[in-house]
Amino acid sequence: MQTGPQPTDLSDVRATNRAVVLRYVRTHSPCSRADIAAHTGLNKATVSSLVTELIERRLLRETGLTENRVGRPATMLVLDGEPYAALGMQVDADELVVVAVDLGGNRLLTWRRAFGALDASPTETVTAVAKLARRAVGRVTAGGRTVLGLTLGVPGLVDTTGTVPLAATLNWRDAPVAAELRAALRDPGFPVAVENEANLAVLAEQRHGDRAGTANLVHLTGGAGIGAGVLVEGRLLRGGRGFAGQVGHLPLDPAGPACRCGRRGCLEALVGLPAVVRRLLPDAESDGAVVDFAPEIERIRALARAEDRSTLAGLAEIGRQLGHGVAVLADLLNPEAVLVGGHFAALAPWLLPAARAELTRRTLAPDAGGCRLDASSLGAAAAALGGATAALATVEAGRLPTPAVAAVG
Amino acid sequence: MQTGPQPTDLSDVRATNRAVVLRYVRTHSPCSRADIAAHTGLNKATVSSLVTELIERRLLRETGLTENRVGRPATMLVLDGEPYAALGMQVDADELVVVAVDLGGNRLLTWRRAFGALDASPTETVTAVAKLARRAVGRVTAGGRTVLGLTLGVPGLVDTTGTVPLAATLNWRDAPVAAELRAALRDPGFPVAVENEANLAVLAEQRHGDRAGTANLVHLTGGAGIGAGVLVEGRLLRGGRGFAGQVGHLPLDPAGPACRCGRRGCLEALVGLPAVVRRLLPDAESDGAVVDFAPEIERIRALARAEDRSTLAGLAEIGRQLGHGVAVLADLLNPEAVLVGGHFAALAPWLLPAARAELTRRTLAPDAGGCRLDASSLGAAAAALGGATAALATVEAGRLPTPAVAAVG
C-alpha cells in the first residue's frame, strides 16, 4: 500500500472538493454557497460548479429559504434527504438488526428480528440476514429511494474480502459471509460489505455518538465476546489483515476463571456478558444455559437499584476488572475516550465509578492520559448504525453514485 | 483537530506535489523528469516547474548522467546530498547518541558519548545533550551544510509540547525538556523537538529498516523500560496526548516478579533488561547494582553460544514471555511485523524461536494474523536515526527550507 504524499491530479481534486462541500453541508446545514466558500477556502466559482453538480445528482438541494443579509438573499442548501438510503445490519447472539439512514444519517427504519445465530450455521444466518435485508430494501425503494450500499457487522475476525476466519462467539470458521450475502441478494446493484461489529460501532460513535468528532476513540462492545473498534486520528485502525481490536483475551488474571479459549482470567472470562450473569446470579443457569440475557440483565439492574449489597459489591469488582482492561488500552492507544456498549452500558451506573478509579490508578500517564470512560449513547443497534454510515462512504468521498437501480428482486 | 476531507487550495497542491516529487526521487534515483511524470501522474510541465524550483533550492540536483534512450538523452536527478543535514539524538541509561543524515537519509556522523543519565537531573542531561548537539552541528556546518532540524528521543511519556510528564526509567517528572534544550542551544535557528524514543525508532524502521515501507509496524524497544512505537497505515500512532505505546506494564502474570511500578509480573518485570540479567546471571549484582548492562549481555551471549543449558532454558522462558506480550499487541493492532531492539535484538537467536511459537499460539487470528516477529536491524542508534528522519519531515512535506542559517554559537 502506497503511503506518503499522493500526487494530486484533476479528478482527485474534483472528488476531494466534492467531499469537502458535502461534509460542510452535512455539518452546517442549512448554509449558502457563500458560507461554503468562506469556510472551506474553495473559491466561489468552484463551489458554484460543485453545488450545481451535486444538485443535479440529488445529493444536495436548495431549501428555498433565504436569510436577511446585506445584499442579495442567499439560497440555502441542505443534503438531499430523499433519493438515497444506506443500510447497516448486525448479527447478535439472539437477534438480527437492520438500520436504514438517509444521506444525512437520519434514521429511516430500525428493525430487530429474533434469530438464534448461536444455533445456526453461517449459511443459515446469511439466509436470514438476506431475507431481512430484502424487506428493508423493499421498504426504502418503495419510498422512491436508491440504496447506496449495505454493510453487515459481525463479531470476530473479518478480513478485507469480507470472509470471517473466526467468529468464536458464533462458532464460525472460514465463513465466506460477504460472498454468500451478495449471492443471497442476487447481485443487488449496490455494494455489500461485511465488517467487524466493533469497528462499525466506533464509526457510529464518530458520526452519531455523544463524542462525535473525537479523533482518538475506542468503542468496546459488551456481549459474549468483547471487541474494540479503534479510531486513530479519525481513521479506523484495521491492521495488516483487518483483524485489529481483539481485546477479549487480554490476560488480566492467570488465576482467574476459565475462558472458552482455554486459558484463565481473560477479559471476557471476567467481565463478558455470560460471566457477569454467572457471577451475579448464581442461580441463573439452574434451569439450563442462559440463551436470552436481557431478562437476566434486568434482574441485575433491579437488584442494584434495590441496593442489594452482594450485587453492588459484585458489580464494583467487575467494574474494577473492566477498568483494568481499559487501562491496558489507555496505555497502548492513549485514546481520548473509551465508550462501552452492550451490558456494560446497561450496568454503567454501578460499573463505571469503580472502572474509572481503576483506570486512573493503573494507567501510566497521569489522569489516564486524559481518557474518559463512558457508556455509549448509541444503544443496541450501534453496529448496524455504523454499517449504514460505512455504506455512505463512497458518496461521502466525493464519488458520484451510479444512476438509480431497480429494487432487489 | 479537523478530520475528514480537506479542501485543496493552490499552495497545498504545490507543496503536496513537491513532496511527491521529492519522495519519488528519494526512492527511485537517479531518475529523469519524464520518469517522475510517468510514475506520479503529474503532467510534464508541472514536473518541470517543480524540479526547477527544487534544484534552485538545492533539494535536487542533476547528476549529468544520461541514459541511452530512444530520442533525446534524459538528464538524471538525485536528491542533493550536500547542502543540508538533519540531526537526531537519544538518551539512554548510560550514553547519549547523536546521528546526522543528509537529505537522502545517508549517515553523516554517528557519535556515542558515555553519560550517566540515571544519576543526573533532567537539566544536567539536557546540558550534556546540548553540548553534544553543538559539536555535531559544528561538524556539519563546517562542511557547509544547513541544519534543517534536531529531534531528541527519550524514554517515557512525551507530550505534544515536548514536555516529559514521566520518564520512569530516568526518574524524570514534568521535565520541560524541549524548552530547556532550545534554551541551551540559544535559539539555534532550526526546529528542535523531543519525542518518545520508541516512536522515533519505528520511524527509523519505516525508512531505513529491513522492513522499510511496511505500513503497519511495531518497534519494541529493549532496555530497562520497554516501549512500543506503532505505525498504523504508515502513520505514527500518538493518541490524544502523544502518550501511546506504553506497553511495559502489560499485566502478564500477577504472580510474577515485583515490578518497580508496584505491581507484579508486568512485561518489564519479566523481560526488561535488568530482569533478564537478574534471571540469567544471578551473581551479577553481588558486587552492587549493575549500571552498565552491555558486558552482562555479552556474558549471556557467550553462555548461550557455549550451549549452557540453564542459560538456554532461561532464554527460552523469557522468549515465551516476550511472545506472550507481543501476542497482546498482535491481537489489538494486527501489525504486519513487530521488530525488537536493544537486548532483545542482542539475544534474538535464543529468544525469538520461543517467542514466535508463543505469539502464534496465543494470538486469536490464525498465523498470528500474519505478524512477523524479528530483531530490528537498526542497532543501538535506532531512536537517534529516527530523530534525524523526523527532523526532515517539514522539507519532505514540500515546505521549502528557510535560507541558510549561521552555525550555532
TrEMBL record, chains A, B:
Q: Name one GO molecular function term.
A: DNA-binding transcription factor activity
> Transferase as a keyword?
yes
Q: What InterPro entries does the database record attribute to this sequence?
A: ATPase_NBD, HTH_MarR-typ, ROK, WH-like_DNA-bd_sf, WH_DNA-bd_sf
Keyword Kinase (UniProt): yes
Q: Which SUPFAM superfamilies match?
A: Actin-like ATPase domain, Winged helix' DNA-binding domain
- On the tree of life, the source organism's domain of life is Bacteria
Keywords, A to Z, come to: Kinase, Transferase
Domain called HTH marR-type: residue spans: 19-62
Family annotation (Pfam families): MarR_2, ROK
Q: Which family does it belong to?
A: Belongs to the ROK (NagC/XylR) family.
Q: What is this protein called?
A: Putative NBD/HSP70 family sugar kinase
Species in which this protein is naturally found: Micromonospora sagamiensis
